[in-house]
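Milestone M4 deliverable, item 7.
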Amino acid sequence: MKKNELIRNFCIIAHIDHGKSTLADRLLVTTGAISLREFREQLLDDMDLERERGITIKSSAVRLSYQSKDGPEYILNLIDTPGHVDFSYEVSKALTACEGALLLVDAAQGVEAQTVANLYQALNHELKIIPIINKIDLTNAQIELTAQQISDILEIDERDIIRASAKEGVGIRDILERIIRDVPHPQGSPEDPLQALIFDSVFNTYKGVIVYIRVFSGCIEAGMNIEMMAIKQTYTVQEVGIFRPKPQTINRLEAGEVGYLTCNLRDARHISIGDTITNIHKPCAVPLTGYREVNPMVFCGIYPSNAKDFAALKEAITKLALNDSSFIFEIESSPSLGYGFRCGFQGLLHMEIIQERLEREYDLNLVLTTPSVKYVVTKKRGETLEVDNPSLFPPPQEIEYISEPFVKATLMVPQDCVGPLMELSIARRGIYKSTEYLGENRARMFFEFPLSEIIVDFYDKLKSSTRGYGSMEYAFLEYRKTDVVKMDILINGQPCDALSSLLHKEKAEYKGRQLLIKLKELIPRQLFEVVIQAAIGNRILARERVPPLSKHVTGKCYGGDITRKRKLWEKQRMGKKRMKKFGKVDIPQEAFLAVLKL
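Output delivered:
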């Protein structure tokens, strides 16, 4: 039997919180990759953020060895993937490096929106799907109903679905045997020209960039001269290895295997996820198809609280972008905040995770501006302009029309929540398309939404309206004409560009008033009056004032003529007037975050 016939490459796909990390832990223990002494929950989730939030953010690769019932020992390469819609790009990277996927569904929650989205991604990559119902030990588990839902989606017999409990270790051996039986072994020969896919990378202080690869044909070993075909750069391989789950150096990686290499690459920008590696002396004819280009959904500015930290922020963002290829950035400047970066994210959770990683891992204090989506502005002269920053928004008299991104959304909700969800969706300018009923108590609703209406708090409202049972998945659809305006926030008559936002004209006045009420609470009182205004162009929508701190200047007067007191009051009045003209208002980070919550 050839070596690649004993290899199985697979990943785990599921909705968030359906037990992917727990199943990965159980597979590691069952196959002996780690001992019970070394075991800890969420072993492959090595970031503190992942462990605190109980979610997977980054894909993780690990090699398992398993002695099957029919005799030979198999090599199983597992890639654990995230479940949240914001990290779907991580899932797509893992799928390209595999031949099979474990589709995990929570027995208590049933099929969710992201379950279906990840399943369709896997089917598009022509992966073999192994359906599993997890958490069958729960008292509220609805095993038969969940089996019916999976059966309807995959069009398979319910008896082909594995019942398991990753927490209790039930059904784990059945899963391993099914992987060996159903997942096809990788194709390709070690004698063919080298063709290896870069599916991820991390930066190591001592080794430089560690490149995660899946070898499709040929072999790769230390000392080999390689070329990265997309960027046309050549390197000498320093080390190759595998993950067990810790990195372990080996002599070489052959066709079908998953591992890593280092090549003394120090600059994070000299790597392209999805690139093909080949041997300089025996190159392959064509590169692998790689990955689709990532289109960010949400944009915001990230600035250091202290302008002196800009160089540290630049270095941190460059390193972080290497670990997360769906995160993009470019330098920008702001009159209020100085130099910073305009960053693109896959969603609001993605933005929040990046912020926390920058603050924790690189010890930075940051200010984030209002998140926005990318609008396409067509000017009267026929010129088009992509605008993701309110400061780049052209004057109204130059604009012919504006287009905003629309997404196609799928909502999975209990049947008794269809009415409230319909009201919520219409309030967010959603366009209803259709509803499908799955079983007795689940419905799948299809809408088209402006992306700007759902990126901030729509998911939270969805969870509240459905008692936690609702879920959502969305994908970009197209750009459509809309009526968008730029709302400025004026602090004592001076615009604060970090608080400016682009929003639909119908909601501008309401959101302006809500924001000013919040800012009035958050901006600390000064020795002078602070006037806050929301404006569109020259039109003031709303106004609030932060009253000045009072000082009893006549407290030292004991009797005497009233003119003495009037003199002190006048002096105080003139002092406050001068302070208002030259004084500086420090706006706390909470004020910028208040914009997010609106």
